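Changelog-adjacent note: as of this version, every example in the card shows the full chain rather than a window. The one below runs 215 residues end to end.
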Amino acid sequence: MRLLCLSAANILHKEKTESTSYKICEIIIAEIQKKISSIESSITDLRDYELTPCTGCGRCYASKRCAVDSTFNQIYENIISSDLLFIVSPHYAPIPAKLCMILEKMEQITFLHWGKDNSYKSEVHGIVTGVISHGGGSDWALKSYKCMVNDTVANALDTIQLKLIPLDGEWNTGIALPVKNAKNSDDSIFPIQEYDWKDLTERIKKYIEAVVDAL
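Full-length structure tokens:
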């Protein structure tokens, strides 16, 4: 069994281990390995990849791969070979550009075939998927992250035919995680965001229970 975590943050000024998205991926892997010791796990950090947007050329129809973006194809192959996928995304405008590029190309490949044959099953059909968003606001902001990030990603996943797992009736497109405190820095133009990692880990563990039960 294979687990793939997509860390969707774009920010380059932070070291890999300082990225909130990457840290969340590490927590996901650690907690799932406690439940499934034999699982093979990997993190795809989108900051390590150069991608191009979909132009709707239609050349992916025959091969089911992008004709001009081998990097996307590499990530897509990794998703196809996974049994379990987690997408971890910060709130940008509303989602990071590289994640958008991946989703739009997967949507294009799937939709072109589904449009010809409504019984078409994509190569990622039914892969169990979890979505975790986060941002710079406290708990009051979580519903806005759900609306802008989780729901946006969920709409794409529905077309692509991945199996998105809800936490519950309210959090039906994954979960959102808050920041504990944000303050200005004297040394940087970027704010300092502080997290309660113990609390976030407990929230992630609760969602992981639902996702693993769906396997």
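Structural remarks: Residues 28 and 215 are 15 Å apart (CA to CA).
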